[in-house]
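Ligand: zinc ion. Inputs:
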Amino acid sequence: MKAAYWYNNKDIRIEDVPTPAPGAKEMLVKVISCGICGSDIVEWYRLPRAPLVQGHEIGAEVCRVGSAIKKFKPGDRVFIAPKVPCLKCYYCLNGHYPQCSEIKERLPGGFAQYILVPEVLVKKGTYLLPESISYDQSTFIEPLACVVRAQRLAGIKKGHSVLVIGCGMSGLLHVKLARAKGCKVIVSDINKSKLEYAVKMGADLLPDAGNIAGELMAAGGKKADAVILCAAAQEALEQAWPSVDKGGVIVLFAVPAPDKEVVVPVNDFWMKEITVRTSYYCGPPDIAEAMKLIESGTIVVADLITHRLPLNDIARGFQLVADGSQSIKVIMKPNE
Ligand SMILES: [Zn+2]
Ligand SMILES: [Zn+2]
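Predicted complex:
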């Protein structure tokens, strides 16, 4: 089978490797769709594990199941979470699933024709796709689950004004979810074509990405109750700090690279009771919620897909996501 080994964003090698055979408690799935995530192109984050086969937004068809598996059969359509928490440790019991100390196994990457699903993920990380969720739509389950979690942790609810800085794929999912909750959503991005997407989804626009706080005040006389940072540029973060209202929350959904020095205005935040909230990855309740939102049509995701590419074009796919000006969601189709 073919698998794409990522060394860095400019060096991705398609290699022929043996198709794995499942043991009694494992299964082999054929990858039908696998999205390229914004985090896949973040080199400081991914390089420590390189070379690796990336791809964690996976819609797949079950091919072969081990003799001990009763829950799934060949032909089943599934979404598989990239890793699963134990649900028993201190962190899991307190809802911090991404911090679970027991996670040992991850799903091999989906930028390959087939994946061997390890036992723990067959047991707790594999979800049957309902009829109404296509393979392409299933690639949004994991990113939407991360968005669901972030907005829940931040306490975002109906009536809040939400500012989303950065309108790539996850920024637009934040726009859609906040709109579905009944929030007023305002967006900012340096890329005009992304803003057009956000406006189509019902967001109000701030034309000058360099003066967000000033524009918020000019437009409505009030800053945002929640600011969600979905861009890694330090300039974007610096725009986030002054844009939050008293008592509000800043959600760091994306962060600048570790070599960037970030100064948090703590004195100002102390007096104004502002929360700085981080959110990393998602947990099982978020995945269930994301599946419900997609299945019910509450969150439409198909309109975010801009590219579908065969595995041989993976370098172009990474380029499209890294550049960001021509694409929103790029989906790899490893078996086409
Ligand atoms: Zn992702
Ligand atoms: Zn745990």
